[in-house]
Amino acid sequence: MEDIVLQECRSAKIGEVAQVVALVPVSPVADMEDLGQVMSLMLEHSYATILADWPLFCSIVALDPFSLFQKIVDCVSHFTVAVLSAASVAIPTSFGHPRHLPVPWWNDECRCAVSSRNRALCQLKAQPSEDRLITSMRARAFARRVIRSSKQVSLRKYVST
Question: DSSP letter at 94?
Answer without folding.
Answer: E
